[in-house]
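My current task is to audit a protein record that another person submitted. I have pasted the whole thing underneath without changing anything:
***
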Amino acid sequence: MPRGGKRQGAGRPVGTGKYNETTKAVRLPISLADEILEALARDPQQVEPATIVSSIFKTDNFTKCRVPLYLNPVAAGLPAPTEDYIEGKIDLNRHLVKHPDSTFLVRVVGESMQDAGIHPRDLLVVDRSLEAISGKVVIAVVDGELTVKRLRKHRNKLWLMPENPNFQPIEIGENVELHIWGVVTNVIHAL
């Protein structure tokens, strides 16, 4: 009998495993694997209605998405005369993703960042290569909980600040485990 390779009738039949459907292997950095798996396993319905990450996506930088860019700007006040001149086409990946190898997308739930323009079901473009400095909106893991907040350093203390007065800031003290996954660069918000 030959060794190695796929054998007729070997393995579990498709759709009979834990998820009752075909699965896909995913590679995660060892340093973040446990946190990612725990965050994905949590039931979002049982978490307080803060803004949390509900889905994580890798960007697809090979797909080109070119849309027309019109020469005339659009007035947000009084209507302006229009001309039918297309300046060119732009690739949204080039405008939203500056560092493709270190960028990912997350979908959020909750309302703790609504005053920053981040609403439930929005997609956030997150860049891991940018420095997380005070004032930036970041994706953070706090004691195993994945969240999006504005990073603040004030009087030698670190805080994760909500952008909604109904939510409390999170002080990062000595006993709090914090990992910053990346800096939010763009919000994709459907109307």
Summary: The chain has a mean pLDDT of 76. The helical segments are 30-41, 92-96. The first helix runs from residue 30 to 41. Strands lie at 52-58, 66-70, 86-91, 103-109, 123-127, 137-142, 145-154, 157-161, 170-172, 178-188.
